[in-house]
Amino acid sequence: MQRWRGLEDIPQDWGRSVVTIGSYDGVHRGHQLIIRHAVDRARELGVPVVVVTFDPHPSEVVRPGSHPPLLAPHPRRAELMADLGVDAVLVLPFTAEFSKLSPADFVVKVLVDKLHARAVVEGPNFRFGHRAAGNVEFLTEQGKVYDFEVEVVDLYVSGEAGGGEPFSSTLTRRLIAEGDMAGAREILGRPHRVEGEVVHGARRGRELGFPTANVATLPHTAIPADGVYAGYLHAQGEAMPAAISVGTNPQFDGTERTVEAYAIDRVGLDLYGLHVAVDFLAFVRGQATFDSLDALLEQMGDDVRRCREIVAGDAGAATEEGGADAS
């Protein structure tokens, strides 16, 4: 799959293509519906499919300081899109100047002049251009002028976790912030993942017999609510069952919020400096303090046993690897 950053990266000889545009944060099941439809249409037409997305998130430029928590970094999104059959991903730097581009100019400069769109596939609420003035109706009219089709994909409605709401990144972020990993997984179609480099911490886990990988998460990452979770630590091409702690470590008067993963039953791991990924399967318990070190150690042992059982009962999650190699 080709990856481009900016319009200047698009090959000069790029021909016609099917295009879909959006932030696509998380590439959740609603996004997957749109992208799969675009891929199917592209195969019918015998042309490649291109996903156009933005960096940073448009809200950060339009309203500085409002950057939403991110469900997946751009390299991870590209991996997920490639798995769906996407041929190219175009990341457009979203600047103040770019935000002033009118819907009509966006159509010409991006869809017509550079990507030579044959068809554009979007969700019903798609908006684009300055002040989000463009919509699917405007896009359809532009398609008649510039010879491209516009196809609208209705999004399915999520189940119990969403209370009947459409699949959305906003809903997913809320569920993650609440520690509802089952609900987030229902929308994403896979466990929520965070990534980052393993850095040195206070080394208390090692001293207590539960050495953890202290993950310096990427900026704006959507971090689950404080507590203990069962999941996987992806490192060096391997998915290892893990007990994961999120929080400030109040037992030792900590103040910095961290994500730490203990690879269950693994000895002698040296992950410092490596880019790793952590998948969250299930919430185990909330953050707490204990009357004694012995009480803490007993609870940590119980946590590990519960996490081991949860991961053992989770079918198929360990087969999705690749996050540890993301850059």
Question: Which helices and strands occur, and which strands form pairs?
Answer:
Elements: E1 2-5, E2 17-21, H1 29-45, E3 49-55, H2 58-62, H3 74-83, E4 88-93, H4 96-99, H5 103-112, E5 117-122, H6 136-146, E6 149-152, H7 169-177, H8 181-188, E7 192-199, H9 204-208, E8 213-217, E9 227-235, E10 238-247, E11 258-263, E12 275-285, H10 293-312
Parallel strand pairs: 1-4, 2-3, 2-5, 3-4, 5-6
Antiparallel strand pairs: 7-8, 7-12, 8-11, 9-10, 9-12, 10-11
Features of this protein?
327 residues; alpha/beta; Rossmann fold; 2 domains; six-stranded parallel sheet; six-stranded antiparallel beta barrel; disordered C terminus
CATH fold field value of the largest domain: Rossmann fold
Shape: elongated
Number of helical segments with 4 or more residues: 10
Order of helices and strands: EEHEHHEHHEHEHHEHEEEEEH
Going by helix content, strand content and strand pairing, the class is: alpha/beta
Strand line-up of the largest beta sheet? 1-4-3-2-5-6
Measured as a percent range, the helix fraction is 25-40%
How many DSSP E strands?
A: 12
Cα Rg: 22 Å
| Average residue pLDDT | 89
The main β sheet shows up as: 6 strands, parallel
- Which CATH C-level class of the largest domain is it? Alpha Beta
Number of domain modules = 2
Termini separation (Å)?
16 Å
